[in-house]
Design brief:
Blueprint (H helix, E strand, L loop, with lengths): L1 H15 L1 H36 L4 E5 L2 H6 L10 H13 L3 E7 L1 H12 L16 E6 L5 H8 L5 E6 L2 H42 L1 H9 L4 H36 L4 H4 L8 H30 L3
Helix pairs in contact: 1-9, 2-7, 2-9, 2-11, 7-11, 9-11
Length: about 300
């Protein structure tokens, strides 16, 4: 009988405040969708870093005749055959080095033509203008500075470059988008909490007569508060469910179909459905508990009879 009474009170409260309940559902849904999206964005950045950092190399560009003629970067002249052999031998001795690949000027020219053959400058570039290089695969990409310290400024070496630098701008942009999403999520969360508290206040005020009678006949505070808490929890649960749908639709539309980033950006290792599904229970749990706790705190002040 008590359970039936509590459920009936929940239904009455939701009907009385239908517009505000709808606003709570939408606010909770948007804030939790942004929260889930921020978590997935952070995981996507982490996945991309693991994928790309494992593939990039450290490049040791050797001095060519043009560098030697310039006299700034290579004041001691172009690299010699003996210097190349010594550099390669020293690289292979290092424990952090996994593989060493030598790229000749002809190979560098061929690769340049494949990548930039359509540009105007590609038509005037000649093989002798290209740089020989050693492409070094490290066992731990984070130890790039060991290579840079050991070989930068050495005779025959024009520069040491970590290919990860070309990816950092992309990762910084994605991290910035993630922070922006979290800020908007925080704003939406505050709005949702304010709506929840206001909804509870209105609901408690509209039923102050009933709650006063229940207090007089000996009903406990928890029993009186339960319908209001359940109303807020139900609205939050609906918002969490809507947020889960938005995350699933977003993943499907952005990556699999619609925009279909997985087809257009095949070199990017996108997060799978398992990553999205793993976040849904957390979204549901927050959607359920957050309004319930907010309602409980608000009721301590507004349900005093």
């Amino acid at each position: 009988m008590r359970a039936q009474f509590v459920l009936s009170e929940i239904g009455i409260g939701l009907r009385r405040n239908l517009t505000m309940t709808f606003a709570v559902v939408i606010s909770v849904a948007l804030s939790l969708a942004l929260f889930g999206g921020a978590l997935l964005m952070r995981e996507q950045v982490s996945t991309m870093k693991d994928f790309w950092y494992d593939k990039v190399n450290v490049s040791l560009f050797l001095c060519n005749r043009a560098d030697a003629a310039d006299g700034v970067k290579c004041p001691k002249g172009a690299v010699t055959a003996q210097q190349k052999e010594q550099i390669k031998a020293d690289l292979k001795k290092m424990d952090i080095v996994e593989t060493v690949y030598y790229e000749s000027t002809d190979e560098a020219f061929k690769r340049y033509k494949e990548e930039y053959g359509e540009t105007a400058i590609a038509s005037v570039i000649t093989p002798d203008q290209m740089q020989e290089s050693f492409r070094v695969k490290l066992k731990d990409p984070e130890k790039y500075k060991v290579i840079a310290t050991a070989f930068a400024g050495r005779d025959g070496i024009e520069s040491v470059q970590d290919q990860r630098d070309t990816l950092e701008d992309l990762f910084d942009l994605m991290n910035g988008m993630n922070i922006a999403a979290l800020c908007v999520m925080g704003l939406m969360l505050v709005i949702a909490l304010m709506l929840i508290v206001n909804t509870v206040r209105v609901s408690a005020f509209s039923r102050r007569r009933e709650t006063g009678i229940m207090r007089l006949v000996g009903a406990s505070s928890f029993y009186i508060q339960m319908p209001f808490i359940m109303e807020a929890a139900f609205a939050g649960l609906l918002g969490g469910a809507v947020a889960c749908v938005l995350l699933l639709v977003g993943r499907y539309f952005l990556i699999d179909n619609g925009i279909a980033l997985a087809e257009k950006m095949q070199l990017v290792n996108f997060i799978g459905w398992d990553a999205v599904l793993a976040k849904l229970p957390l979204v549901i749990a927050i959607g359920l508990l957050m309004p319930a706790v907010a309602a409980f705190i608000a009721l301590r002040k507004y349900l005093k009879v």
